[in-house]
Design brief:
With 171 residues, this protein is of the alpha/beta class. The chain is 26% helix and 32% strand.
Length: 171
């Protein structure tokens, strides 16, 4: 839905934390004209993404705005932000990597999970540095300058919930 209006254009898409490239592959399927990039800290996943995603370039390592020499129309950030120690700095870097009017699409575990999942569930593991509410996410994004912020709490499987966010770069 996010990309439906841009199906026939050369949209620059970056997937941060692209894993094995499944989402990038899906973007290329939906939008063959898109130019896709990814960054993944795990070398094995990054190598898989290079082989399977159809992306122009996959970098191994952690995201920074200097990593690529271009700016993006869409940045995908799925199940990544909760692993970041300094989300404000990280999101500022994402913001500066977007073209004017560029869209950030992000998903993080929802606090709704506290109502349904056992405390031993892996969603609450130590690798998650921060848990976000609608208000905290909105505050981060507002402070950075994102506009048209839309946050929805969705159930994605077996009582596991995510906050799904879209927001635009205003400059």
């Amino acid at each position: 839905e996010l990309l439906s209006s841009t199906q026939d254009s050369q949209v620059m898409v970056l997937d941060v934390g692209c894993g094995g490239g499944v989402l990038l592959h899906k973007v290329k399927e939906m939008m063959p004209q898109s130019i896709t990039y990814g960054v993944e800290p795990n070398e094995l996943y990054a190598d898989l993404a290079r082989r399977k995603s159809g992306a122009r370039e996959i970098k191994t390592g952690y995201f920074s705005s200097e990593l690529f020499k271009c700016r993006f129309d869409v940045v995908l950030l799925c199940d990544v932000l909760e692993h970041v120690e300094s989300p404000d700095l990280f999101l500022k870097d994402i913001y500066s990597s977007l073209n004017k009017g560029g869209v950030l699409f992000l998903e993080v575990p929802s606090p709704t999970n506290f109502n349904f999942l056992e405390p031993s569930h892996d969603i609450f593991n130590i690798a998650h540095h921060v848990f976000y509410t609608n208000d905290t996410l909105r505050s981060y994004l507002d402070d950075i300058g994102f506009i048209d912020i839309n946050i929805v709490d969705i159930e994605y499987k077996n009582n596991a919930w995510k906050l799904r966010v879209t927001a635009k770069n205003s400059i």
